[in-house]
Write a structure and sequence with these properties.
281 residues; alpha/beta; Rossmann fold; Pantoate--beta-alanine Ligase, Chain: A,domain 2; 3-stranded antiparallel β-sheet; binds pantoate
Amino acid sequence: MFVFHNRHQLRQYVGKQKSPVALVPTMGNLHAGHEALMKRASELAAAVVVSIFVNPTQFGPTEDFAAYPRTAAEDLERCAAQGVHAVFLPDVAELYPDGLPGAVRITLSGLENDLCGAFRQGHFAGVALVVMKLLGLVTPQVAVFGKKDYQQLLVVRTLVRELCLPTVIEPVSTVREADGLALSSRNRYLSASERRLAPELYATLQEVAHALSAGRRDDIAALEHSASERLAQQGFLPDYVAIRRAADLQPLPSPEREMVVLAAARLGKTRLIDNLEINLS
Ligand code: PAF
């Protein structure tokens, strides 16, 4: 497995590939959720490139950029065990040669300030910027993203569509612990008691999905409100629970066939997000 810290070496490597390349962008601290992305990437392309970069521009000033777990040695072992062909492990100056926040800003109408974007100002602009840099460097045929970050997935799809990029964006289902908690690098911030409570986030999403499937389809706002109340009663500080159209995350006046219920809530100092797709066919 090749490990590149330098973007020119990475470019040379991908330039030499004769067959399709898949990119798996990550911020490291890899877990079974990332392994599922690598596995899907290897099904779709002959060469799999994983990027590991904790991107400063997607963190707000009060967020956990400095504390974000950096575990490069273990991550490289995990990538090698998954049969990854190359890992790109740049430092900040390598991806932001003009310094921070960089000479370019991407503005995303609509999605940028909605849902998680309303609580994390500038987050999706930062994600969009680094994803554009990585797609520009690797020029992959396919890039694989987890559905756990559902809004991020739609942001990336919008970028690729609007900017006419040739990369296919491949979504992969969320990997969960046995008790339903979605795998996330931030789960390690949870105390033992918070960890016991954390699966209630997914249980709440499942309750909303059951209510919709069972015919409680008249009042979306009431369902969102009662789910948020349930989380608050259990000890979460909910940012939002929202039932949206799955294709574009638009708010819905009434239920549609393909929806997604998304939630973000804090448990102590940890912000958890999760979502569940609902198909009413
Ligand atoms: O999902 C992540 O890990 C990050 O947001 C990404 C896509 C690697 C961009 O930094």
